[in-house]
Amino acid sequence: MRTRSTLQSGSSILEFAIVIPLFTLMLYGVFTTGMSISKAQQVSTLTREAGTMFLRFVDFSIPGNQALLIRQASGLGLMEGGGNGVIVLSAFKMIGEGDCIAGGFEPRNCPNFGYPVVVKRHLIGNKELFKSTFGAPEAAFFEENGTMPASKYLTDTGCRAEKLDTLVALAAGENAYLSEGFFRTPENSTIYQRAIF
User: Fold this and answer.
1) Which of 78, 87, 168, 184 could form a disulfide with 73 if both were Cys (CB 3.0 to 4.6 A apart)?
2) Highest mean pLDDT among 31-35, 81-85, 173-177
3) What are phi and psi of 91, to 5 degrees?
4) Which residue from 41, 134, 117, 121 is spatially nearest to 87, judged by alpha carbons?
5) Which of 75, 70, 65 is nearest to 87 (CA)?
6) What angle do CA 61, 87, 29 make, to 5 degrees?
7) Domain locations in the chain?
8) pLDDT band at residue 2, thresholds of 50, 70 and 90?
9) What is the mean pLDDT of the chain?
10) Measuring CA to CA, which residue among 73, 30, 35 is closest to residue 187?
């Protein structure tokens, strides 16, 4: 008995030494996955709430209203004019015959007739971090309050949101509102969420 136990002594330490790195790696994986899921859920909630406020005509050109979103993004690194994330709020309109006539154009001479266009946009956070794929008009086209003059969105083809039809089908004169959230996490992953209204 003594000879056998002497030969087996230290084997439990060896087994522990082999298994502990695997358990540590698994524990780290569970922790980082849990943190990523938690942050993704927070981004999803923030994006949806921002879209709901935008839909209800909250003016995000006012710094106080932007501060509301920044407070809700606690822990995500959203800051005014910078940080690790950005919220992009966009309003779209499908240009119909009535829109062209109201803008002083015949439908056949209205370049964006029959296309959805960006009519309003707000970017809160790091504007250089993410660009929406649903229309990319020049920043100079937007007025201080985030709206775009009809003279621009009726005539400039750069105002079109051609990929919008993959999200929603609009009839002439209808509007849609889109909220997009893009964040970089400390774990070097990215989180993107969107909500359409």
Assistant:
1) 78
2) 173-177
3) -115, 135
4) 121
5) 70
6) 155
7) 41-196
8) low
9) 91
10) 35
CA 59 to mean position of chain CA atoms = 18
State yes or no: pLDDT of 23 exceeds 70.
yes
pLDDT score recorded for residue 5: 55
Contacts for 67-74: CB closer than 8 Å, 24+ residues apart: 69/124, 70/124, 70/125, 72/46, 73/42, 73/46
Residues 120 and 46: their CA atoms lie apart, in Å, by 20
Tokens describing residue 53: 């406020």
Beta strands per DSSP E along the chain: 78-79, 82-83, 85-94, 116-125, 175-184, 190-196
- Rounded Cα gap, residues 197 and 145, in angstroms: 21
Model pLDDT for residues 71-114, shown as the tens digit of each residue: 999 889 999 988 999 999 999 999 999 999 999 999 899 999 99
- Burial of 158 from C-beta contacts in 10 A (0-12 / 13-18 / 19+): middle
What pLDDT is attached to residue 9?
Answer: 62
Distance (Å, rounded) from C-alpha 138 to C-alpha 182?
Answer: 20
Which phi and psi (to 5°) does residue 57 adopt?
A: 65, 30
Residue entry with tokens 């981004």 = 43
The DSSP bridge pattern shows strands 78-79 and 82-83 to be antiparallel
